[in-house]
Amino acid sequence: MSHYHAVVWIDHREARVFHFSPTEVEKLVLHPDHPTKHIHHKAGSVGGGHATGDHDFLHAVAEAFSDAGAVLIAGPGAAKNELVSHIEKHDPKLKKLIAAVETVDHPSDGQLVAHARKYFKAEDRMVK
User: Fold this and answer.
1) Would you say residue 104 has pLDDT above 50?
2) Is position 41 within any domain?
3) For the whole model, what pTM was predicted?
4) Structural domain range at position 119
5) For all residues of the chain together, what is the average pLDDT?
6) Average pLDDT estimate for 29-50
7) For 95, which DSSP code?
8) E-only strand ranges, the chain
9) Pick from 88, 93, 30, 18: which is nearest to 56 by CA?
10) What number of other Cβ atoms are within 10 A of residue 81's Cβ?
11) 60, 63, 64, 68 alpha-carbon torsion, rounded to 10°
């Protein structure tokens, strides 16, 4: 089954990828091989206490939406930006699929898909 739009919610522990149409949804959940634990920030530490992304995980997430026409990337922290940076560096052809990157806390699957449908409904009106 093929859907034009996708939404990705990502943090350092998992990525939830949804391909959807107005009436259907397909879900894929991905986990890194070595998930990071919550890191406490230490003043003066190298890197500020931020975990670096798992490149295999980020690549798998990018591949999971590579057949979509447009994707909304969301998440609560830095992982969404790490995904975008990974795509720019390693999968630049996928960069054109990214419609937006948004900070979104921890929505339910239904809330995330509803948000993405609303986003793309407005976005599609602007593009046409």
Assistant:
1) yes
2) no
3) 0.83
4) 5-31+50-127
5) 86
6) 59
7) G
8) 5-10, 15-20, 25-30, 70-75, 98-103
9) 30
10) 15
11) 160
